[in-house]
Amino acid sequence: MLRTHRRILRWPALLRRRARRNRMATLLLAFTVSLIFIFPFYCIYKPPNLLIRYFQHRWPDVLFHVSTSAKVVALTIDDAPSAHTREIMDVLRENGVTATFFIIGSQAAGTEQREILRDLVREGHELGNHAMRDEPARALSDEVLATQIRDVEAVIREAYAAAESPAPPKYFRPGSGFFSERMLKNVKGLGYRLVLGSIYPHDPQISFWRINARHVLSMLRPGGVVICHDRRSWTAPMLRRVLPEMSRRGYQVTTITGLLREV
Known about the structure:
Elements: H1 2-45, H2 49-58, E1 62-63, E2 72-80, H3 85-94, E3 100-103, H4 111-122, E4 126-129, H5 142-162, E5 171-172, H6 181-189, E6 193-195, H7 209-218, E7 225-229, H8 235-248, E8 252-254, H9 256-260
Parallel strand pairs: 1-6, 2-3, 2-7, 2-8, 3-4, 5-6
Helix pairs in contact: 3-8, 4-5, 7-8
């Protein structure tokens, strides 16, 4: 009888311990499920260096980054020319930096836009091919994509001729940043190297330049390829913050061609 009474008295403590264990198990399960869902999105927003190295090994014909110990990074700017290009040029000039601008052909139809491209070349910048329109290149047929690349190539050649400069190597960046093996074969057949990158602040979606600047600087590594975008008012302020800090850390910022010299 006494033993039974003691057992009854212990029940509240046993129940409390069991409840604590259940709470811990529930919290652990919730954390694990959250991690499973969040981690892929984190890898998209801020891919680990190991993942970038894997991509470069898996697709050696696509440029993600360059394996080097030298503090050199390439700066690439998509969606040029625009009403913001000259302000971006001013920031680059102030910091003694050159970049590779990927050109959308439909944005370079007018005289003013062609003059911007000419002036980019005159100031030592490089022009790459971003097809004719701001659209997912992977959705285009081989024939349509090839036609667009050739049309933009003609615009680029015209800009280099106007600047009295020899044409650069051929670089292509697909709209939306996705490619397929078929696209890769098509692009190579046209004499282009497909260029992606390793440092991307998702600036088309995130308009806060301080956040974008912090993102770029947090991922800064030798051999990196920075991707940012023209046609946005927040790009120039972001570069005003990022470029002096890169210099302070001892980095040289250059074009894709300049970075590839490190290989």
